[in-house]
Structure prediction request, 321 residues.
Amino acid sequence: MTSTDSDAEAKPGRLYYLIPREELTEERGDIDLPKLASLLLDGKWLVILVTSIFLMAGLAYALLATERYRAEVLLIPADDGAARGLTAQFGGLAQLAGLNLGSADISEQLAVLKSEGFARSFIEREDLLRIILHDEWDETRNEWRGSPENWPDVRDAVRIFDNDIRFVVHDRKTGIVTLAIEWHDPATAAAWANLMATRINEQMRARAVDDAEDNIAFLTAELARTDLVVIQQAIGRLLEFELQKLMLARGSSEYAFRIVDSAQVPKRRVSPQRTIIVALSACAGLIISILLLVLRDRWRSSQSAAGPGDSRTKRKVSEHG
Prediction:
């Protein structure tokens, strides 16, 4: 070996640090299954304590939470075949005259059923403000709690009713509309659901009657003004249709929706789901306890590494020429 090769292989003064493989694993903070099992065994009382606390908290919530029951009414759009036929026959002429002959589409009925205006009218008509906002009503003083400027009104009741009480689902394949009411009293939930189904038909029927009467008044005035026989015949056919629509609206109690299945008083609550709550609470407690054990182990490792007797002291190797 030449002197040049010897100088290339070893240079005086260069230092090398050798770190064992197991120490590198500890520095990265990796925890394998045997170590995790050891942590659980050593900290079993902490796991039992934390899991028990979460379990008891979940059980207390499941038992003390307000029970809610769901009552459902199944609706289908009212079949108005005659009206659809006349609409197809006179639709073009009605559009020229600026008249609304109705449509088989139920988007309007659904929009009204889901609207805040319909909820407001239902709450005001049935005097449900204090029932929906019962937590804020003081029975002893017979007034709202808090200062008068902070008293709730029907807008607050509509917001709660729209978000937490009334639910409307439309199945486009079958055409079935499900109107559901959730409340803590099952009999009240069923009564409200059936009453809302009646009210939506009443409101849509009243709207159809008003539209038909306005159209009849308009067509009658136009008929009196024209002398053309063709126009008179066309207006006469439109008047016939409006009279039929007015007769159907006044004579049918299920004008917008037909009730397939009325709401029955529910026997089983929809919330709280006590079994699921307790199971999730126990799982959360177990996960939190494991995280605490892992964090405690890493904290102890960092403390021991910072001490004077650090077992992971790097070994220095010096090479000389």
Summary: The two ends are 14 Å apart (CA to CA). Residues 310-321 have pLDDT under 50 and may be disordered. The chain is about 60% helix and 15% strand.
